[in-house]
Amino acid sequence: MDEAMDQALDAVGPRLRALRKEREATLADLSEQTGISVSTLSRLESGARRPTLELLLPLAKAHGVTLDDLVDAPPTGDPRIHMRPVTRHGMIHLPLTRRPGGIQAYKLIIPGGTRGEPDLKVHEGYEWMYVLNGNLRVVLGEHDFVMKPGEAAEFDTRTPHWFGSADERSVEFLSLFGSQGERAHLRAKPKAKGA
């Protein structure tokens, strides 16, 4: 290995220790979360064991950082994030966040008139949506309504739900989704007296 890579790998141990201390977690807590033995974690932090991808992936997830952040990868020089769109259930999902865990942000595009009849789903999590363009039909439990550009909704995804284009035009909206029930918190100023 070249010298730069050796230096990067040598710096992983102290970084792992700092991240664990930041979270106020013990080696036993981290071991339970990752399935990596306490002795291996201790040797990684002290530099007595070389980090491998097999060890670093669960640690990055446990600490809520990317693998690049964990190994302090050099910047590429291009600050743009190049996310690849994914098509699922007739919708185009464009991820806007890269960090593992926590609230995830997506831009979703639903082509007009393509989703058919509502097929309500339930799953763990909490979702916040904001319509950018088009009219979004939302079925949420016994409620069936249309959201227009500039409108937002939030709901617990354990409530049966479905959304699609309300007409023949496509719909674009932003979605913040927390798989463990994390909620988006909006701060608003109180109305001025006399307003």
UniProtKB/TrEMBL annotation:
Q: Which CDD domains match?
A: cupin_XRE_C (cd02209), HTH_XRE (cd00093)
UniProt cross-references to SUPFAM superfamilies, sorted A to Z? lambda repressor-like DNA-binding domains, RmlC-like cupins
Residues passing through the membrane, by range: none
Q: List keywords of the entry alphabetically.
A: DNA-binding
Domain HTH cro/C1-type per the UniProt entry, residue ranges: 16-70
SMART domains given in the database record: HTH_XRE (SM00530)
Q: Which Pfam families match?
A: Cupin_2, HTH_3
**What protein am I looking at?**
Helix-turn-helix domain-containing protein
